[in-house]
Amino acid sequence: MSKKEKDFIDDESEGYFMTLVDEKGKEREFELYAKCILNGKDYFALAPVDGEEGEYVLLRGNKVGEEIFFETIDDDDEFERVEDYMGDLLFGEVDYDEN
User: Fold this and answer.
1) Backbone phi, then psi, for 56, in 5-degree steps?
2) Domain parsing of the chain, residue ranges
3) Handedness of CA 57, 2, 38, 13 (dihedral sign)
4) Distance separating alpha carbons of residues 32 and 83, to the nearest angstrom
5) pTM of this structure
6) Per-residue pLDDT tens for 7-28?
7) Which of 13, 26, 37, 79 sits 20 to 30 Å CA-CA off 6?
8) What is the DSSP string of the chain?
9) Which ranges of 1-99 would DSSP assign to H, the alpha helix?
């Protein structure tokens, strides 16, 4: 098993649902789609329950005590690295832009 696969999702996370509140106070339900560790940070792909199949959002997890707080990924370079990594894990996509 590769490091990527070990860092990816485990069976106990499947079927995990949560309600998140956006900046405007609107609640929306999500299902954990995938998680990974990249450069020592936890990242989560969350699929909106009311969204289209294959749609997901990427968030960084920040663990404080036993709770995980989700943060948006504001840095464009960091977001692109996470998006490429998740895309490769989820869909087997290859990023041909990198040499």
Assistant:
1) -155, 160
2) 3-72
3) positive
4) 16
5) 0.73
6) 444 444 457 888 988 778 989 8
7) 79
8) --HHHHHS--GGGTT-EEEEE-TTS-EEEEEEEEEEEETTEEEEEEEETTS-TT--EEEEEEEETTEEEEE----HHHHHHHHHHHHHHHH----TT--
9) 3-7, 76-91
